[in-house]
Amino acid sequence: DQQVKQNSPSLSVQEGRISILNCDYTNSMFDYFLWYKKYPAEGPTFLISISSIKDKNEDGRFTVFLNKSAKHLSLHIVPSQPGDSAVYFCAASGDTNAGKSTFGDGTTLTVKP
Amino acid sequence: DTAVSQTPKYLVTQMGNDKSIKCEQNLGHDTMYWYKQDSKKFLKIMFSYNNKELIINETVPNRFSPKSPDKAHLNLHINSLELGDSAVYFCASSQVGQPLRSPLHFGNGTRLTVT
Question: Would you call A92 exposed, middle or buried from its count of C-beta atoms within 10 A (0-12, 13-18, 19+)?
């Protein structure tokens, strides 16, 4: 029972264009969503998050959109840069006490110069 | 100055052996975790400790035993290693129980290969 899904295993975009990574979830108890970025041989690093009381959060080139009715969130990167090439994980949490996060299986983004 | 550090980075061992992975965080967080990333790249939580107390145990075989001597350390001991234990194990920490949620801070992982 995979509660968080990233249906695109990979995405390739041209430098300067927009990258859009998608994530779907099934558990309506999730109320906090995060995106992590992972380079090879390193641990995931936090990128951006959004609470369920919002539908958009922006941080520089990164914007996360949340559509609660569709149980869908997306990460927009504009403009995309070659250094953004990495695996992006979507994660969801509904547990304020234990801090448990459920992860999607990642999307590999390649930004071509 | 590494925030979450785990050792060793690589661990190659034979079936049936017992091994340990160590993790330390200097962020002052009160909660630490072990996640497993299998061959399908799926990150799955195994355990969580809050101030040395086990709070999450996600149907992990009894051969896996976490130990937290203090809130800055969380070690993972694995008995009788099996081929299926081969994976990358990530330690993480966060500050929970606050109005503003804290993201996870991960170590760089330990790649365990069981032969």
Answer: buried
Q: For B104, which of A42, A87, A101 is closest by C-beta distance?
A: A101
Residues comprising chain A, all counted? 113
User: Taking 70 as the threshold, does the pLDDT of residue A18 lie above it?
Assistant: yes
Predicted pLDDT at A96: 59
User: Would you place residue B99 in the very low, low, confident or very high pLDDT band (cuts 50, 70, 90)?
Assistant: low
Q: What is the DSSP string of B91-113?
A: EEEE--SSSS----EE---EEEE
Structure tokens at A85: 């090439």
Interface A–B counts its CB contacts (< 8 A) at 70
Predicted confidence at residue B55, as pLDDT, reads 84
Chain A residues in contact with B90 by the CB 8 A cut-off are 43-44
Q: Which two tokens stand for residue B1?
A: 């100055």
Interchain contact, B103 vs A49, CB within 8 Å = yes
CA separation for the pair B48, A97 (Å, rounded): 11
